[in-house]
């Protein structure tokens, strides 16, 4: 079993467990602290989407810090069960867990666009190249919304649509993380 500690907000210091499944590597506490400092004024009441949710580190942290809702998407049934159980333990009805392949989920949008997307996919599998265009084509992000992306430091920054502006970027060891602001569409 893995363990995750919420680092800020209403559930600060709460420890949650998740199964060792699917090569989950939760976003480290220091990285989460930096990310949520970047998003400090955008988070209150935000509708968030946590893709490749895994341990739930990003989506649960967002809820703890005042996000209105968070949809956590992961294709591994054991992780989805653990995410649901952790939401129950936290007595939160603002989180929804979807057990689905991320590509399928994004290709069949059946809900309004979101304010913030968190994307921390497995490394070295080409996920960002496939999914960043899909996020844009399916108009998943509201204008003025945010997309957070983690990728391996040895690779170049992912190509993003021209109306996404790099807001912040930082590297920590083998991980580079970026926050993009989505402005009005070009088309």
Automatic annotation (TrEMBL):
Transmembrane as UniProt keyword: no
SUPFAM superfamilies documented for this protein: S-adenosyl-L-methionine-dependent methyltransferases (SSF53335)
Top-level class of the enzyme under EC nomenclature: transferase
Enzyme Commission (EC) number: 2.1.1.171
Protein keywords: Methyltransferase, rRNA processing, S-adenosyl-L-methionine, Transferase
Record's catalysed reaction(s): guanosine(966) in 16S rRNA + S-adenosyl-L-methionine = N(2)-methylguanosine(966) in 16S rRNA + S-adenosyl-L-homocysteine + H(+)
InterPro entries: DNA_methylase_N6_adenine_CS (IPR002052), RNA_MeTrfase_RsmD (IPR004398), SAM-dependent_MTases_sf (IPR029063)
GO function terms (MF aspect): 16S rRNA (guanine(966)-N(2))-methyltransferase activity; nucleic acid binding
Record family assignment: Belongs to the methyltransferase superfamily. RsmD family.
Role, per record: Specifically methylates the guanine in position 966 of 16S rRNA in the assembled 30S particle.
NCBIfam families cross-referenced by the UniProt entry: 16S rRNA (guanine(966)-N(2))-methyltransferase RsmD
Designated name of the protein: Ribosomal RNA small subunit methyltransferase D
Source organism of the structure: Marinobacter santoriniensis NKSG1
Lineage, highest ranks first: Bacteria, Pseudomonadati, Pseudomonadota, Gammaproteobacteria, Pseudomonadales
